[in-house]
Amino acid sequence: MVIVSRAQLAESGLYAHTTAYSLVLGSIIVLVPLHILSLGYSPAGLGLIIAGQGIFQVALRLFGGILSDRLGERWVMQCALAAMALGSLTLAFSESVLWMIVAQALFGGSRSIYWVAAQSYGTRIDETRPAVIMGRFFGFGSAGSILGNGGAAVVAATFGFETGFILVAIISFISMIIVAITPKIPNLSQRTLKEILSPVPKVFLKKSIMLPAILAFGTSLQMGIMGSIGAALFEEFGFLKENAAITLGSLSMDKYGFLMSTHAIGSVIAGFTFAKFVAKAGQQLTYALTIGGNGILLLSIVFLGNIFLIATLLMFTLGLAFNSGRVFNSSLTAMASSPEQRGVFMAVVGIYWALGVFIGPLVFGPLAEITSLSISISVAGILMLFAAIMSPLLFRTTIKEIS
Fold it and tell me: CA–CA separation, 33 vs 31, rounded Å?
C-alpha cells in the first residue's frame, strides 16, 4: 500500500487545479471575443466589453496577498474558481451587454487573486525545493493554456458557444473540489492591510521600477489587444468564416483558437529558453528586442497576417515575445527590490500589467471603430517600437538603482 504524504497531496493537487484553471482561462480567452463577434458587436463594443475584465484586475492586484494571508490560500483559490464558473454560466445564458461586462469583471477578479494565492501555496509546500515546484507549476499552467485554447476552438466550432461556457463552468466546479481536498498549510505570516500598503507610494516613485513597469505594460497590452480586437482583425481576414474552419473528421477547429494555441506554444518554449538567451544577448539588448519584437510582430500581423500560414508563424513568434516579456519583467523587478520588499514591488509592477490588459481593449477598440482595425493595432505596435528605441536611455537612467 502506497502512503501519500500531505506534501505530496498538496503538490499533486496544486498541479491538477492549476492545469484546470489555465485550461479554463485559455478557453475564456478564445470563447469570449468569438462569442461577442458572433452577436454582431463592433470592435468598439468588443473592446469595451472585454475591458470589463480589467476593472477588478487593477483594483484587486494589491490585495491578493493579504486575502491569502487573512483567509488562507485555499479559500481564495476556491473564490477565484467560483468566479470563473459564475462568469461562464452568465455568458452561457445571457446575451445582455450588462451581464457580459459583469462576467468579464468576474473573470478579471478571479485572475487577480488566483495566481497570488496559488503561488503562495506552492512556495510553502516544501521550503527546500520551491524553485522545482514553481517550475512545474508554470509548466502545468502552460499545458493547460494550450489545451484550453485548442479545446475551446473545437467546442465552439463543433457544438456552439453555450456548450463551451457550460463545460468551462463544470471544470471550474470540479477544480473547486480538488482545492477543497488539498491539505491546509499553516501560514505564520499575518500581514495587515496597513503593512502591505504603506510602502506602495514610495515604490511607484522609484526609478528602478520604470523598466519592468514599461515591459509589463507593453507585454500585457499585446495580449489585451490580440485577445479582443485581434479576433476582429482575423475575422476581417476571413479566418472566422464557417467554411474556413480547420476540420478533423467530424470535429472542427476555429482558426482563431488555433492561432491562440500557437501563441501559447511559443510562450511555453520561451519559458524554457529565455534564461540562456538573456545570458548571451545581455539585458539591454534583450529588453529592446522583447518590447520592440512585440511591436514589430503586431505590425507584421496587420500587413502580412491575412495569409494563414504567415499568421500562424507570427502568432507563434508573438508568443515567444509575450512570455519573454513576462519572465523578464519579473526578473527585473526582483533585481530592483530587496527580498523584504519583493512582494510590494511585484504588486506594483502587477498593476502596470493589469493596466495593459485593461487599456488594450478599452482604448484600442474604440480607436478601431473611429479609424480601422489595422490603424488601431498599428498604433500599439509603433508605441512599443518607440519604447524599444528609448531603451538605451531608460537603462542609463535606471541601471544603477537596479544593480
Answer: 6
Task: Give alpha helix (H) positions in 39-129.
Answer: 43-60, 64-71, 73-93, 97-123
Rounded to the nearest angstrom, the gap between the alpha carbon of residue 170 and the centroid of all alpha carbons in its chain is: 21
The tens place of each residue's pLDDT in the chain, 403 residues long, gives: 445 578 788 888 889 999 999 999 999 988 999 898 888 888 888 888 888 777 777 767 767 666 766 677 889 899 999 999 999 999 999 888 889 989 998 998 898 888 878 877 877 777 676 656 766 777 788 788 888 988 888 888 888 899 999 999 999 999 999 999 988 877 655 566 676 667 777 777 787 788 888 888 999 999 889 988 998 999 899 888 766 666 666 666 678 888 988 888 887 787 667 777 877 878 888 888 889 999 999 999 999 999 999 999 999 999 888 888 877 777 777 677 765 566 667 778 878 888 888 899 989 999 999 999 999 999 999 999 998 888 887 777 666 555 5
Cα-trace Rg, the chain: 20
Phi and psi at residue 115, in whole multiples of 5°?
A: -65, -40
Fold topology of 1-185: Growth Hormone; Chain: A; (1.20.1250)
Cα 189 to Cα 62: distance, rounded to the nearest angstrom: 16
Please tell me what DSSP assigns to residue 159: T
The cell for 346 is 511585484
Cell numbers 501559447: residue: 264
Distance, CA of 83 to CA of 106 (rounded, Å): 5
Class of domain 194-403: mainly alpha
Q: Hey, where are the domains in the chain?
A: 1-185, 194-403
Q: Which cell is 316 given? A: 507563434
**Calculated CA dihedral for residues 219, 223, 225, 226, nearest 10 degrees:** 130
For residue 8, give the amino acid letter.
Q
Report the alpha-carbon distance of residue 167 to residue 151 in Å, rounded: 11
194-403 shares the fold of 1-185: yes
Alpha carbon distance 162, 20 (integer Å): 19
The CA distance from 349 to 201, in Å, is 13
Burial of 201: CB neighbours in 10 Å, binned 0-12, 13-18, 19+: exposed
